[in-house]
Amino acid sequence: MASGAASPTLIYILGLPFSGTTLFAAAMGNSDGVVNCGEISFVEKDFMPWKRCSCGARLAECGFWAPLRAEAARDRAAEKPALALEPEAGPHPLDTRMLPWHAHLRLFLGRPLDAVFPEAELRDYAARHARFIRAAARQAGALFVVDASKSPRRLEALLRHGDLPIWVVVVSRQPDHAFGALLKRARRRDPSHWLIKAPWHLAAMVYHLRCMDRLRRTLPPDRVIELSYESLVTRPGAVEATLSHWLGTPVCFKVEAENALPMRGQHVYTGSRWLARLDAGAPTVTLRPPLAKPELTPAEARLFAAARRLIPALKPRPERLLPPEAPLRPRSAP
Ligand SMILES: [Zn+2]
Question: Which residue, 69, 200, 305, 309, shows the most beta carbons closer than 10 Å to its own?
Answer without folding.
Answer: 69
